[in-house]
Amino acid sequence: MDAKKLTKLRKDLRTFLDVVVGTRDHPRRRRWCEAYVLGVLLDGQRKSVEPMAKRLQAIDQSDADYEQSLQQFVDQSPWDEQAVLAGLQAWIARQFNADGCLIIDDTGFPKPGERSVGVARQDTGTLGKIASCQVAVTLHLATDRDVVGLDARLDLPEAWTDDPLR
Q1: Cα–Cα dist 72/83, whole Å
Q2: To 10 degrees, what angle do helices 81-95 and 10-20 make?
């Protein structure tokens, strides 16, 4: 999504985050949570901290150290994963108030290298072949109008679970 569109959606994003993460969180952590989500939504191939920080800095034009602050947010912020997922699922239930069905699927994420958790040469339907990737088991809600993700869990291949050093 380009910066202009994202700016128009900022109020909606804050409302969304109020429901999903809550309003009682520490203001500084909440600010960087919003910045992180904006970084993920912005156009750009790489969604790791450094490239997202550069894109956010280009839009904001402030002196804020986006890279260090985002890295701290990702590495050190305490989050109750179950509470965030419950908030997300409650928001989805209100937005998609319709009959639907749940879809459980595996989703492959092509990923070169060997350091990212779960990366291995494995079969992925996403690419239709064996490739270096991560695979997650995903849960989606499908209605007659939309499909939305509810949850995802990384599936670790035996190369990871059988290696005590990992």
Answers
A1: 21
A2: 120
Q: Which tokens belong to 155?
A: 């599936």
Look-up: residue for tokens 């939309």? 146
| Predicted TM-score of the model (pTM) | 0.73
Question: Is residue 1 within 8 Å of residue 41, measured between CB atoms?
Answer: yes
Task: Indicate the angle between helix axes 66-76 and 27-41, nearest 10 degrees.
Answer: 110
- The DSSP line for 11-35 is HHHHHHHHHHT-S-S-HHHHHHHHH
DSSP-derived pairing of the beta strands 120-124 and 129-142: antiparallel
CA distances, 21 to each of 3, 131, 138, 152, 155 (Å) = 23, 35, 21, 18, 25
pLDDT digits (tens, 9 = 90+) for 109-131: 999 888 899 999 999 888 899 99
Q: Of 22-26, 104-108, 128-132, 151-155, which range is least confident?
A: 22-26
Q: Mean pLDDT score of the chain, rounded to an integer?
A: 89
Q: What phi, psi does 20 have (nearest 5°)?
A: -75, -45
Longest dimension (CA), the chain: 48
